[in-house]
Amino acid sequence: MKPTSSFIRHALLISTALAALSTAAFAERADRDKPTNIEANQMFYDDSKQLNTFVGNVVVTRGTLVMHGEKLILKKDSAGYQFGTLFAPSGGLATFRQKRDGGKDLWMEGQAADRIEYDTKNEIAKLFKRSKVRMLDGSKVTDEVEGEFISYDTRAEFYTANNTAIGESKPGAGRVRAIIQPREKETKGDDR
Predict the structure, then answer these.
(1) Of 92, 91, 110, nearest to 100 (Cα)?
(2) Are strands 82-87 and 140-153 parallel, antiparallel or unpaired?
């Protein structure tokens, strides 16, 4: 049975959108060349809207990246940019974990109680509600950021954490928290 052109476009949309979602946001460069695997209880695809929805115990894997959520929506605009949203299960968390470049056992992991979004046009990842991003060296946490909203610009490698889930900080709305561990050379007194 030959695949239809609609099926081929659909497969390309999924692989392109997930490649962008998975590699730019939390990247180990080698993951870009790995196949993307999405597992869920259901999948819906609307070719006319370039919209793909996966529902029920969604697991996305691509190289070292593993993402978990209840629902994944992938959209593609007319210019070819993709936008992905991974929703948390009710009462649970949307999560990701991926190896980072720069060392043998460096990892990045994150979680959000509402959703994780990624926009390929602007290369920005956003985590909503009770969000947390941690950098690890093996099992040791080297840095950690918590807030109701975390935005990560992958081009500039720049974080923003806010005390409301709408991406703004407001007086009395709570606090953000960051833990930054001293680097090995700092603890040895060599701070050049």
Answers:
(1) 110
(2) unpaired
